[in-house]
Fold:
Amino acid sequence: MAVVHKYLRLKKKFPHVWCAGCTNGIILHATIRAIDKLKIPKDDVLMVSGIGCSSRAPVYFDFNTLHTTHGRAIPFATGAKLVKPHLKVIVITGDGDALAIGGNHFIHACVRNIDLTVIVFNNFNYGMTGGQRSPTTPPGKRTTTSPFGSIDPPVNVCSLAMGAGATFVARTTAYHFRPMESIIARAIQHKGFSVVEVRCNCPIIYGRLNRLGDGAKMLLDLKEQSMTVEAWKKLPPEKQKKAEQEKIIIGVLKEDTKTPEYTEQYRALCEQLQAL
Amino acid sequence: MAQKKKVEKEKYLWVNRRWCKRCGICATVCPKNVIDYDSEGYPVFARMDDCIYCLNCVLYCPDYAIFENKEDQEYVKEIL
Ligand SMILES: Cc1ncc(C[n+]2csc(CCOP(=O)(O)OP(=O)(O)O)c2C)c(N)n1
Ligand code: SF4
Ligand code: SF4
Ligand code: SF4
Structure:
């Protein structure tokens, strides 16, 4: 069996609900392999999600899992982490779930630097509800709520996370399987709030609305569109700006191990008060 | 050399058709063009001699439909 098959709730949940060519399965495969590589026991993992196609993920995996309400995965995860700090808490969320309805929770978790790993499946639209515009939809792209092309400037997930104080921030794509696996492993190991933005595809809705081809083509396109952060850093400043607009810059963008972590501060405070 | 032979012997891949959604990703990511489609659009490992067992097809299948061992066939049949 492949590594992933050992972690699936094989008996009742398959085939999964995702459309043909949807990349959600690939990202989760990389996540599972990262957990396996780190040798974290299944019982020590808590996978939490909100609502959306991507957020259906925990249903399929044999960990402690919580499938919560739209946009609220991070608050549930925060509660669980505070009560059971030994758990590795991984939040699976979509661009809509994390940044639209859950935007405030996302920002405040970054500010707190609580030890959660948030994997944002950024497919540029609300796949589950039929392809509405999301905060990350690029300008000019069609969705069911921007049928003539979006005019809103998109949110840059990684810039937002870095600005708000997340201490580990990385970007990757569903095409870059092996780098994705090691980035997710690093994010899980990091003590503090880690955000991994994964650029991925919704070929069936967003892809069709924008005539981007089938899932296989869209997957290869992610390769063409990407540039490593190392290559980007070598560019002259004016080209860096341009590349930032046109390319998906992939790699670890921020890693700060000095900022105190929230759960530890909370424990320390509890101990201090109990000693009074 | 001995190690190479061992790999050759273990080279086995099969597609669980109940899970496969015929997306074509496995054939696209195969570096050796091993995979064709049958008349229904399901992938078949047509040129296993060329397969380098990189397992890209297993890793990228979004439906976890490709298995690496013959023995899994029985197990999967049992649970479905
Ligand atoms: C409170 C609430 N508002 C709205 C919805 C409807 N709804 C379900 S999923 C979703 C958007 C999901 O988009 P995203 O997080 O990008 O995930 P994707 O489906 O693209 O993976 C919305 C608006 C809901 N379930 N609950
Ligand atoms: S609607 Fe889009 S995001 Fe949802 S399962 Fe289908 S392809 Fe994936
Ligand atoms: S293991 Fe590699 S070479 Fe063999 S069929 Fe799969 S992708 Fe192709
Ligand atoms: S990648 Fe998986 S689901 Fe897609 S055609 Fe190949 S075996 Fe089927």
In short: The first helix of chain A runs from residue 10 to 13. Chain A has a mean pLDDT of 97. The two ends of chain A are 55 Å apart (CA to CA).
